[in-house]
Amino acid sequence: MPHKIQNLGSSSLIHVLEVPSRAAEFVIVDNRKMPTFGAMKKTPLYDHHQELGARCIEFGGYLMPVSYEGIKQEHHAVRTGSGLFDVSHMGEFFVTGKDAASFLQMLLINDVDACPPGKAQYTAMCQEDGGVLDDCLIYCRSVEEWLMVVNAANVEKDWAWVTQLKEARFAEADVQLENRSDHMGLLVLQGPSSLNLLKPFTEVGLDAIPFYAFTQGPVCGVPDVWIATTGYTGEKGVELYIPTDQAEGIRAIWTALLDAGAVPCGLGARDTLRLEKGFNLYGQDMDETVSPLEARMGWVTKLDAGPFVGKEAIASQKESGEYRRLIGFVMDEP
């Protein structure tokens, strides 16, 4: 779905600035009184965001930067150069064991067998009625080792669903689940110059990593960083997964890339960039009341890949042809 965005003022922040109304304690952020909604988490880079003058909000249980210099500037930095995002609030589940692939095939709508070691795959989890519980990425390290990355706002819901299905359908199988969402950092470098900017800081041959693939190697001296050619902006780039027990390493990578010319970007630009590219956002374009077909995710819904949760409902909907469809609009004027 092509999109053009001519005016990227503050009004373009549709959903990421929504803050639920509920009783709360308060903290002072950016000289403003903000509700804590309990104990908000912070990424290892929170102090760096404050030093850069970031405007922060609560999102997915974390205090996250929504913008620095401005959404429009950050948006265009990614389209013309390179932008750096801290999205360490995302959820990471590790799925391991001899039956891990079979478990994921039951859980997800895409064909897990089509994701060999070293590759990534976009997919989703559905309810029995075909409603989308969450969209996600999976990374195959080996047929017995997988990383599943879910949306920050859905971590608790997703973890409950995944563990419930494991106990209900794979209780006797060789499958181990580990929720490491609070123990993984995620830095995202995106833009046409992003790979060249990163090259001096790693010995990994970045040009040799295919699209939607990954490898592991050192970055800024930090060992075993997951370097993935995935992203959510529609631009060339990498996503860097780093355990938070290497917090100083995360800070070192962030600082080095900014010093090399990357522009710090917040959740606001991440939203406008994905919207311009036509990428879906959970909670905005689909949820439990919307099927993958309705959300234009039929291209990742592999009905012939084997049984998965929601398959019968989705197949019935496809056969009937009677369902809503998400449509994108192109704006030709500011």
Can you offer a commentary on this structure?
The protein has 334 residues and is an alpha+beta fold. The protein has a domain at 10-90 and 183-277: Gyrase A, domain 2 (2-Layer Sandwich). It is built from 8 helices and 15 strands. It has a 6-stranded mixed beta sheet with strand order 12-13-14-11-5-15. A 5-stranded antiparallel beta sheet has the order 7-8-9-6-10, covered by helices on one side. A two-stranded antiparallel sheet has the order 1-2. The longest helix is centred in the middle third of the chain and has 15 residues, at 155-169. The chain is globular and about 50 Å long. The model is unreliable at 1-24 (pLDDT under 50).
